[in-house]
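Peptidase: structure tokens wanted.
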Amino acid sequence: MLFHPMDFVILIAFGISLWAQWKVSSNFNAWSKVPASSGLSGAEVARMILDRNGLYDVPVEVIPGRLTDHYDPISRVVRLSEPVYYGRSIASISVAAHEVGHAVQHQQAYGALVLRHRMFPIVNFTSGVAPFLLLVGFLLHQLSLIGLGIIFFAFAVAFQVITLPVEFNASSRAKKFMLAEGLIYPDEKRGVNKVLGAAALTYVAATLISVLELLKYVLIFTQSNNNDE
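Answer:
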């Protein structure tokens, strides 16, 4: 594929993505050093919020790694990295509450999350095939393959776009849970916002890169199609 002017914009977005990842790491490190006033660990906070929402059957497990925390909707398990599971800091309980937010979304059939789950099998296939179709299409100058590759890639981009409200909503729920249960004081909310806000920024940056890349392919396809006419 030849260089396209949109590549400059994508490089800028990629730079923003790297900066966002750095922000996540630096904010987590900074607020990991600030003890939560509740004295509870991430695992204890997760368990408490799950129980308050009637999710007694959703276990909280510890997994190796750093910032590997996630909610598994298939197994219905909240998995927390060791620093979050055992940590008693603002960062630890913020991340734990966020992941529980996804479990509550699942319980309440939150619309964006339901749509995301339904799209996953399709996106899992299309995202794997799209690069191959685009590569072969550009090499062989086959507009039909390029067009199909763009359509498949668009599914992956749509999946990322839908992920944004899911993540923002989970963070919003986390903040409300912690305040309502007295797990944080109002003056600790700044730390929670810093940790969860930085994490959300990584999703925004990744989505921006994908949207711009899709736009680039569409522009190349349109120009090629016009040249062939």
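Helices lie at 6-32, 42-52, 82-86, 90-107, 111-140, 143-180, 189-228. The chain has a mean pLDDT of 91.

Cheers.
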